[in-house]
TrEMBL record:
Coiled-coil segments on the chain, per record: 39-66
InterPro entries the record matches: DUF4935 (IPR032557)
Keywords: Coiled coil
Species this chain originates from: Halanaerobium praevalens (strain ATCC 33744 / DSM 2228 / GSL)
Listed name of the protein: DUF4935 domain-containing protein
Positions of the DUF4935 domain: 3-167
Length: 348
């Protein structure tokens, strides 16, 4: 199994920690395969890491300042935070370690690619596409990946990229015909979850007997799954709250006052329906993915200081039909862990 990855995979998960990305490493290890990462992808992911960390750190410090306004005790973690440079060093060392373990191969690009890149840019050949400002780097990534696959006659090549406009055919599933002229060895998947779910024949080679038995035993009723999700509410409640904060302006009337202080609370989360769930057996882990509908009770307290005293306005409400997709793992002892929120949206 030879897995080639694009920046889209690492943008929100630079250390391959989420349930499905983590298991890519188990797969290539168990199947004597390799993950190929373009140097362009690695450098771009490093820059994305810097930007995301700076944004998250600024938001964290802002939230702490806000907390300190209302608290009798003061929190100060600024001196305890790692510097951005230290996090970047961790990132570099992480992939150096994977490379030393022969799980990852960092793929450099060649200066000899330049004439071909220029030619494709002029002729608007794939991966060049109208309106995309990242075409140059996409072309370097593709040329380096396709060259390795052809030169080393690799089989079972999978390219994980969510860059539909540049790499995919009109069906949004297969490699674009112009790119197949470079190499027809690649099967494309948008995220690692889809690869794991669709390449059953390859993955089955490394499944152990006890996990196969446990996999067959895992059958949830809606009631059982709702209870498990309720018990693990803390694992997704904070991300649900963050989502509500983002959309709060569309939920509340903000025209009455220009408030100086606003406090939003998520008072309760009720699971209304289980849409579907599925399970995957990967290496030494079982991953369960579940899609469900919630109803959220929230309140919003807004304050404005005036000459005649504080004016307060409180609004409460219920948000229906917030859809969540979460995943979690089951280990060989049948314990559920590693709960993660994969997606949140409102159903109209």
């Amino acid at each position: 199994m030879n897995i080639f990855i694009d920046t889209t995979l690492l943008y929100t998960d630079p250390f391959l920690k989420n349930n499905y990305n983590r298991n890519l490493l188990q797969l290539v290890d168990g199947l004597n395969g390799k993950i190929f990462i373009s140097k362009v992808v690695l450098e771009e992911s490093k820059e994305n890491l810097k930007k995301n960390l700076e944004k998250a750190q600024n938001n964290l410090l802002k939230d702490i300042r806000e907390f300190n306004k209302y608290s009798n005790s003061k929190i100060d973690i600024k001196n305890d935070l790692k510097s951005i440079d230290q996090h970047v060093k961790d990132f570099e060392n992480y992939y150096k370690n994977l490379e030393s373990r022969d799980l990852v191969k960092i793929v450099d690009y060649k200066n000899s690619y330049l004439p071909e890149v220029v030619k494709r840019a002029i002729q608007r050949k794939k991966p060049f596409a109208p309106g995309n400002k990242q075409e140059f780097r996409d072309c370097l990534i593709w040329l380096s990946y396709s060259e390795i696959a052809e030169r080393d006659n690799l089989d079972n090549c999978f390219f994980i990229t969510n860059n539909v406009s540049d790499f995919y055919d009109s069906d949004n599933e297969s490699l674009h015909p112009e790119l197949r002229k470079d190499s027809s060895k690649f099967t494309l998947y948008k995220i690692s979850k889809y690869l794991i779910q669709n390449e059953e024949d390859l993955i089955s080679k490394m499944k152990n007997k006890r996990l196969k038995e446990l996999f067959n035993e895992i059958i949830f009723t809606d009631k059982e799954l709702a209870k498990l999700l309720n018990d693990q509410k803390k694992s997704y409640k904070s991300e649900l709250f963050d989502y509500i904060i983002k959309i709060s302006s569309s939920l509340f009337d903000m025209s009455v006052y220009k408030y100086e202080d606003t406090v939003i609370t998520l008072d309760n989360v009720i699971i209304k329906d289980i849409n579907n769930w599925e399970k995957d057996l990967i290496g030494n882990e079982i991953i369960v993915s579940c899609n469900f509908i919630t109803e959220c009770w929230i309140s919003k307290n807004m304050f404005k200081e005036r000459d005649d005293g504080s004016v307060a306005n409180a609004q409460t409400g219920k948000i229906k039909n917030i859809e969540l997709t979460v995943s979690f793992s089951a280990n060989i002892k049948g314990r559920y862990e590693n709960f993660e929120t994969d997606n949140i949206s409102i159903i109209s």
